[in-house]
Design goal:
This protein has a three-stranded mixed beta sheet with strand order 1-3-2, covered by helices on one side. Strands 4-5 form a two-stranded antiparallel sheet. The protein contains six helices and five strands; from the N terminus they run H-H-H-E-E-E-H-H-H-E-E. The protein is of the alpha+beta class and 133 residues long. It has helices at 5-9, 17-30, 39-54, 85-97, 101-115, 117-120; strands at residues 60-64, 68-70, 75-79, 123-126, 129-132. The protein has a single domain, classed as Zincin-like (2-Layer Sandwich).
């Protein structure tokens, strides 16, 4: 069962200073002129963010047709047709925190909300998902 918006936002997720700094620096370095980048370029940059945040916890990133995470093989799949930072962060949350939907949602939403408030404000809640308005 998926968590509710209220469960996800109930208390701030404790993000490390390293996670916040790495993500903020990535945003500064890689999100310049984002609207002019191809999907391939966006996916490359999202992959860089995943590897930065995964740190010492080995992960493989592959392109697929949907966002998902294989807990056994430690493979994070990105939807090659829909580059999405928040979706990638959600799957990274599974890599870092296991199969708990609540923890993956809390990690991704709170990190996204903290570092990307301008983009977070442009999203709407549909169940446990944040989608473009």
């Amino acid at each position: 069962m998926y968590p509710t918006k209220e469960e996800i936002l109930k208390t701030p997720f404790k993000l490390s200073l390293d996670t916040l700094n790495l993500t903020a620096n990535w945003k500064k370095d890689y999100l310049k002129d984002i609207r002019q980048k191809t999907d391939s370029e966006k996916l490359t940059e999202i992959t860089i963010l995943i590897y930065l945040l995964a740190g010492q916890i080995s992960v493989t990133v592959r392109l697929g047709t949907k966002y998902s995470y294989d807990l056994v093989d430690r493979v994070l799949f990105l939807d090659k047709a829909h580059p999405s930072v928040i979706s990638a962060l959600h799957e990274l949350g599974h890599h870092l925190y296991g199969d708990s939907e609540l923890e993956a949602c809390r990690f991704s939403v709170w990190l996204f909300k903290t570092i990307f408030p301008e983009f977070y404000g442009k999203l709407s809640w549909v169940g446990h998902l944040l989608v473009k308005k």
